[in-house]
Amino acid sequence: MTAARQKQMRRGIARIGGRLAGLILLAPWLAVPPAAALTERIVANWHTGLAMDGYDPVGYFTDQKPVPGNADFEAYYAGVVWRFSNPGNRAAFLERPDIYMPQFGGYDPIGVVLGRAVAGNVDVWLIVGTRLYLFHDEGRREKFVADMERLLAEAERQWPSVLHTLSP
After folding, report:
1. Long-range interactions of 127-132: CB distance < 8 A, separation 24+
2. What was the pLDDT predicted at 1?
3. Which of 75, 119, 160, 168 is in the most buried spot, having the most CB atoms within 10 Å?
4. Which sequence spans correspond to the domains of the chain?
């Protein structure tokens, strides 16, 4: 783990501790139903902070397959840690994250169409034009491919509403 990432993790742990203490004090007055739980704007592992389970987002474009990232080549961007298989992929991502980040923050486009934030799977993916999409499962990807133009337009239309339900 890089020194910068270690520092980031320490700051995150300190923030969590402070927030947890505040929540414990407020707990008797808060009655939040489970459905009110918030989700991050970019799919990331809650324990590690890694986007895309540590896979290299640039690898989908360069190698046409999921490529595991390396802890030696990390970048912190958009609130999460991204891993890359080599320094060139890291540099390419940092130059154009809008191209290499999965669309809809890594959420499944079919879920977005339905107004829900459903995490995509790094092994079930599709590149359309210059954009990477992650799907929850094969069936959803097949459904998307069968009616791509309509579903993509609907997902784009629904995304602002779904995004509004996610925590910043």
Report:
1. 127/60, 127/61, 128/152, 130/99, 131/99, 131/103, 132/57, 132/60, 132/61, 132/100, 132/101, 132/102, 132/103
2. 61
3. 75
4. 1-33, 40-164
Identify the segments of the chain with pLDDT beneath 70. 1-39
Q: Which long-range contacts (CB under 8 A, 24 or more apart) does 158-163 make?
A: 158/112, 158/113, 158/114, 158/115, 159/104, 159/112, 161/115, 162/104, 162/107, 162/111, 162/112, 162/115, 162/116, 162/117, 163/41, 163/105
* CA distances to 4, 127, 142, 147 from 41, in Å: 22, 20, 25, 26
- C-alpha 153/C-alpha 95 separation (Å) is 27
Report the predicted TM-score, pTM, of the whole model to 2 decimal places: 0.76
